[in-house]
Structures are given as C-alpha cells and as structure tokens.
Sequence to fold (284 residues):
Amino acid sequence: MKRQFFTVVIPALNEEKYLPMLLNDLVKQTFKDFGVIVVDGKSDDATVERAQKYSNKFPSFAIITSKKRNVSYQRNMGAKRAKGVWVIFMDADDRLPKCFLEGVKYRLSESGADCFTTYCKADTKKGSDSSLASFINLSMEVSKLLESPTALGALIGVSKKAFNKSGGFDEKVGFAEDSDYVRNLFKKGAKFMLFKDPRYIYSLRRYRRDGKLKYFTKTAKLHLKNFAGMEINQLKEYPMGGASLEKKDLNGLTTLFQGMKTALKRPKILKKIKEYLSSMEGDY
Fold:
C-alpha cells in the first residue's frame, strides 16, 4: 500500500446496513490522500460482501478478517497494516460531511497534535438528539480541562508514530477502551487536541435501541466509575468488547456525582462550560 496522509480504520461486526453509508461518505471526501482498512470480526451478515464493492474506489482499500470479535484487537490489527502518516479510527455507523478530512488536515497543520478527536453532531435534527450530542461534546471539554481527556471510539485520530510507541489499545479493557487509550497516550506525553470543527455525525442507534434514558443511565454510571478510577467489569451488551458485566458495585453513584460536582466548581472549568454553552446555542 502506498504511503498516504490518512488511513481510516473501521472495525466492523454485522454492519451491512451502516458500513456502506460511511464508505459512500469517504468516497465523496474532497481530500483524497487516504486509504481505508475494514477489519471485520467474522460478521454473520453481508458486511464483507458489501464492503468489497468499494475495493476500487479508493487509492488503497483492504478488508481483513479478525480472529476475535474485539474492537480493540480489530483496531490494533488495522493500525498495524496502516500506511498513513495518521490513523483515524471510526465506527462503522458514523457519517461524515464531504470536507471532513480536509478540515482535519488543516487543524492538524496548526495544532502540533499527536492524537485528536472532534466534536460530534447527532444523526437527526431532533432537539433531544442534538442536546445529547452537545452533552457529549461538553463532557469531552470538561475531561480535557481536568487533564483526563476522553474520546469516543467513533472518532479517534493518532499519528502512526505515536500509535507505534503507545503499544495500541488495551485488548483486555471492554468498557471505555477508547478513553483508556487516549488517557494512556496523554500520560505518556502525547499532545491531545479536541477540535470543535469539523464535526462527524455520531450514530445514536444504540440509544434508540435500548431507549435513550435506559442507555444513558447505564453508560453514565459506568463512565462515572471509570472517571473516578473505580474497577469496572466489562459491558455485557458490548459484543465487540468480548466481555460481560456483573451488575454490582453501582451503588456509589451519589458519591461519584458529588465528586463531579466538586470538580465542576473550579472557576476555570465553569468558565469553559459557560463559553461552550454560549457557542452552542444554535445546536439545541
């Protein structure tokens, strides 16, 4: 595979419906110096067959099969094959505006970043969905200010050089493996950037499948435990994590919220939140 600026790595498992839409978005990108690697976890549907239709639409394109259904393992497989100066990990149900890669390239030229993510937008124009996306963006801002950066696995970029030094994603972590990876990079001295634009479109299908409140409550508890450094058993409903969740030790939620409340009293963080909310008025 020829050297490229970006390699987009997409772990997939039974994504015959969504993966072609993302691949179509990538075909339409205004910036063309990139390759695509789909890492399939032995899907039971037509994911691979539909992906194969795009084999001649990119400067380089590969579909590789993972022996494990494990999102971290699949990401690591794809990154090892990547020839780009930058590796961008995406979920198969993401969507992209046509200028996304061009915009990211511009941000990288200014930032000196080693790894990054961007703000997201909801996949509908419903107010509740937009509010949820805004909450995610704000959470990433707060985490960055607390020097404990987080990112969704839906969109994480890392230089190939930094990835090689990092050792990759921890394949034993089944919940919040994305944030775990970003924090480990940060602890090792990598410069992390959160770009406000361009924005990718984040699929909320898991929220819809489980019901927004149910899913949000379940994941919020786990993310709070993760933030507080408490031990978490892996999430049962996360098949690519290859793990299970024993629903115990979740009674500390009140204590965790109190800890977050204390952290949010910091003047610098409150100022950032106010700035964020002012800039996001049109998003609600």
About this structure: The first helix runs from residue 19 to 27. DSSP finds eleven helices and seven strands in the chain. Strands lie at 4-12, 34-40, 61-65, 84-90, 115-122, 155-159, 192-202. The domain at 4-205 is CATH 3.90.550.10 (Spore Coat Polysaccharide Biosynthesis Protein SpsA; Chain A).
